[in-house]
Specification:
two-stranded antiparallel sheet; single chain; mainly alpha
Length: 121
Amino acid sequence: MRIGELVKRTGVHERLLRYYEEQGLLRPERSASGYREYTETHVDTVRRIRSLLAAGLGTSAIAAVLPCLETDGERLAPTCPDVLGQLRAERDRIDRAMEALRESREALDLVISAGLRKSAV
């Protein structure tokens, strides 16, 4: 299938698909005339990429773990022993980012509450 069909099948814009290719996440074959040729496997790969992006992973992390994931029903499952460590490291990174955001929100709440007290006077 050509890229337009992959767009229809996955709902992912053509520019994003090309970006995934630039990042090494998608590797379509090329026809004799140079057109990208995608298969059903690419449809599954794009869905996996989208799931991992939604989980908070960046494309470099996805490139590292994608070859070691398979679809197990409705979810992704690791197939390589070392990928669990990589996924745990990503989860820890997300936890640290969430804590930093929580601290930022608390600081902002203090500023807002001080402003509310001042405007009530």
